[in-house]
Request: fold
Amino acid sequence: MSSQFQVNMDEFLPLRDVVFNTLRKAILTGELKPGERLMEIHLANQLGVSRTPIREAIRKLELEGLVIMIPRRGAEVAQITEKSLKDVLEVRRALDALCAELACDRITEEEKQELKKACDEFEQATITGDATTIAAADVALHDIIVAATGNKRLIQLINNLSEQMYRYRFEYIKDENQHKNLVEEHRMIYESIIRQDKEQAAQAAKLHIDNQEKSIIRQIHMEREHSR
Reply:
């Protein structure tokens, strides 16, 4: 296995949870690549733990859809497929449009300032060229819009999707050609919410997801061609 990631043993969590969080982050950020085998002994040695928490973590990752079990091969990081991508983004598209509409009515003055600052910080993050930094700034921006809805059930639904969504978002953000578009799309969403233009805010949120889907599908096709 080529990936070299480390477990953070400073967290105040049971060891199995620390191992699970470490492996999940490695998958979401692409350190553990789609199709890569998860060898229990190798991972245990690399992370300095026994095989038991590794086995437990792999089982939980399988339940999340991030790992699949292959007969006679064992555990592998799940591929990013067009079907899995479309299933997640189809739901997220509808939820993001709803969040944008509700934010138009409910966003506070303080949240407006936070959103403007988040747009600026995202633009600055793109200059760094570091995908992890950019992804964090992107998540922070969208979290403000979600929180502005004040709808606890909607926030819960978004949070349930966020882990899988992060994986796709990370793939999108790795494409540096899209950074300028991302900055502009965020500005469109922000300005629509400030104007309380529900229709435009919803359209901007949908466009944001649609462009993400197109970009990642393009990447999937390119990777498929390269692997032939």
Observations:
- The longest strand covers residues 67-70.
- The chain has a mean pLDDT of 91.
- The chain is about 75% helix and 5% strand.
